Amino acid sequence: QICESGIGYCDSVNVISSKILIKGGTVVNADRQEVADVYVDDGVIVDVRPNIKVADGVRVVDATGKFVMPGGIDPHTHLAMEFMGTETIDNFFSGQAAALAGGTTMHIDFVIPVKGSLSKGYEAYVEKAKLSCMDYGFHMAITKWDDTVAKEMEIMVKEKGINSFKFFMAYKGSLMISDELLLEGLKKCKSLGALAMVHAENGDAVFEGQKRMIELGITGPEGHALSRPPVLEGEATARAIRLAAFVNAPLYIVHVMSIDAMEEIARAQKAGQNVIGEPVVSGLVLDDSVLWDPDFVTAAKFVMSPPIRALGHGKALQAALSTGILKLVGTDHCTFNSTQKSFGIDDFRKIPNGVNGLEERMHLVWDTMVESGQLSATDFVRVTSTECAKLFNIYPRKGAIRAGSDADIIIFNPNSTFHISANSHHSKSDTNVYDGRSGKGKVEVTIAGGKIVWENEELNVVPGSGKYISMPPFNYLYHGIDKADENYLTSLKAPVNRFNPSI
Ligand SMILES: NC(=O)NCCC(=O)O
Ligand SMILES: [Zn+2]
């Protein structure tokens, strides 16, 4: 529960003491795990080793038999996003409160430009984010192209701490960009050391597919899946990858939902290209049968893009996550309540696209991937936290339990059980796409910025307490890119000096 003022009810020791000792747990980082204590003071991890002794007055939390891990970092969220004629029901407070209850302590949200203006979009999101109760960063979408946009991209990277730009290849007539724009964007990203991200679906073909379904009289949520099949995701993924190869720029594919897209990524990686694939929880654990549910509200809550795919795709994505083809898990948390989803009661094209996941991601990834033996605990930390911190250049400040890192920590009990319910979740939505699910493992304590914000099933969160995390350019994918450019120029064997007999 969150009290009305937003200030929680935890005991005074929690609120006042900035010193916490987490005793006797198994500390899990992406590269190793060990039994150790973790000492936190003033928002920072000060020491990690066995048998730390502390003075009286320090809050001691017993983690014996439990895992002590970096808080989750969600690379893909849409809070307070204006989209498809409405605004997501979770803002920067409710979405982040939900995240903290589920063990995620930082997220990166997508700034949407205002009429193409990056600076206006940035200002709007700075306002929205004033409600924050945990740390956050920004990616930024690019929706049009001109010299001003190019200049503003530079300002965003050099002055505003944004190091990634997203290009929507779908949503014709609103967010969709052309190949020409994507090429300009890739070149600009490369020159700034920023990471280009794509929503990969062929928007023109989706538009055609939607018309086809309406003409066939298929107007319900199942029409959403039928109108944008995996082949359109595979095509756009392949196109984006090839254009990135042509420019020699790193590329990040958001919400990989199909075997078709995943196989394109695997092929490019095998050829040595720097392509990152991000599955989202819905794509890993759900299948599209839900879109055929006879109850509109039930079916509509699963409408997102690219669509949740037929049985088999999720399993293949899980396997690709376990073998490293797919690198980190996001949520694409973009929630609309059942009233908003009902805008499309007569026409699936009007159902606002998006599902929840911020509160559920850590539990579902553990249960699906670790309990099934597909990932180890260290892998779990890598795909839910560390890889994101590395890609967006904030490691080891984030994504690690080590001296000097921010004190964003979870205590996870692998022997407990989680239950998901729309009645008890912390999102403002009245529905939850994982409603009724249970599984093994439970985030019992979340510490964000050195404060215990989730304990005994209670949230203790304050709007305005979250910090903006500035993210510098030139992440590890840029290492060696200049050599590759040099090799490319050499390989041209040009220009050729030709003898001109007229001179
Ligand atoms: N994914 C989705 O359905 N909604 C959010 C916008 C986007 O990421 O495409
Ligand atoms: Zn998208």
UniProtKB/TrEMBL annotation:
<comment type="similarity">
    <text>Belongs to the metallo-dependent hydrolases superfamily. Hydantoinase/dihydropyrimidinase family.</text>
</comment>
<dbReference type="GO" id="GO:0005829">
    <property type="term" value="C:cytosol"/>
</dbReference>
<dbReference type="GO" id="GO:0004157">
    <property type="term" value="F:dihydropyrimidinase activity"/>
</dbReference>
<keyword id="KW-0378">Hydrolase</keyword>
<dbReference type="Pfam" id="PF01979">
    <property type="entry name" value="Amidohydro_1"/>
</dbReference>
<feature type="domain" description="Amidohydrolase-related">
    <location>
        <begin position="67"/>
        <end position="453"/>
    </location>
</feature>
<dbReference type="InterPro" id="IPR011778">
    <property type="entry name" value="Hydantoinase/dihydroPyrase"/>
</dbReference>
<dbReference type="InterPro" id="IPR050378">
    <property type="entry name" value="Metallo-dep_Hydrolases_sf"/>
</dbReference>
<keyword id="KW-0479">Metal-binding</keyword>
<keyword id="KW-0862">Zinc</keyword>
<dbReference type="InterPro" id="IPR006680">
    <property type="entry name" value="Amidohydro-rel"/>
</dbReference>
<dbReference type="GO" id="GO:0046872">
    <property type="term" value="F:metal ion binding"/>
</dbReference>
<feature type="modified residue" description="N6-carboxylysine">
    <location>
        <position position="166"/>
    </location>
</feature>
<dbReference type="GO" id="GO:0006208">
    <property type="term" value="P:pyrimidine nucleobase catabolic process"/>
</dbReference>
<dbReference type="InterPro" id="IPR011059">
    <property type="entry name" value="Metal-dep_hydrolase_composite"/>
</dbReference>
<keyword id="KW-0732">Signal</keyword>
<dbReference type="InterPro" id="IPR032466">
    <property type="entry name" value="Metal_Hydrolase"/>
</dbReference>
<protein>
    <recommendedName>
        <fullName>dihydropyrimidinase</fullName>
        <ecNumber>3.5.2.2</ecNumber>
    </recommendedName>
</protein>
<comment type="subunit">
    <text>Homotetramer.</text>
</comment>
